[in-house]
What does this fold into?
Amino acid sequence: MTISKGKSSNRLLADRPTVDDVPDSDPDGNVPAKVLINGGTARVPRWPNYADQLGKSDELTVYWVQGGITTTIYKQVKDGPITEVEFEIPLDVSLFSNDGVAMLYYSVRAVKPFPGNKTESEEKKLTIDRSIIPLPVLLPPKFPDADIWGYLHCDTIRPIWDGIFVLIPFQGFKKGDICESVWKGYSVLSADEEHYVDGTRGDFSYTLTEEDEKSIEGFELPPIPFVPHSRPLIDKCSGSVVYKIKRGAEYIGESKLGYVKIDRLKPGKFGVLVICGPP
It folds into this structure.
């Protein structure tokens, strides 16, 4: 049920509600991902002048305010003597479906033996940002030209300087889905961010075709250009790819990191190591 909100400042007598996992020390009330995913629990402290005897009753009403609309999310009469020091109020996950700021507050009024004036609480601010919800984890990308030890090298069938090919395993993606991938190069074999090679990063976008949708092997992305993304990677290096899949306006998953080792040195005359491929 929705109602219009008409608070008067002289009725702000009750303490504000709290919400589990949203610390009072955060003035913006940022809602964590687990509450956005599962819903949450609000807690209403027992109010002043509560029904403390048999024959007395108070009515507790809890409100959710967002986008200019006030919704009653809980309404119940509490018969005296009230012994609880707080009341748990379930917050359905649907309340967190839209980004923005919401306000949570409650009112109480005596209903027995005589109707009384309404007392309203201070508001609890809640900031909803659904972008913090972790995406479903997708399979890591593969590098189909790597050897059994996970290397791309001078004898790779499709030469590194023709581009690095990346395979996205089959996971039921659809025609029109967009695969957004990020490539990075490193000066060590382990794809360690501390050893990222400046200038190697590449951000790419690919739209799946009907053929990609039907392929049980997955689909291959356009090759990552040699310049500037892998040319600096010569001796005991590596490159990594992570990708997201976007369907319509929303991302539906993000992959684990996949990486490949890169070595562009080979024996030359008199056993001296030389760099293969373009300089």
About this structure: The chain has a mean pLDDT of 92. Residues 44 and 87 are 5 Å apart (CA to CA).
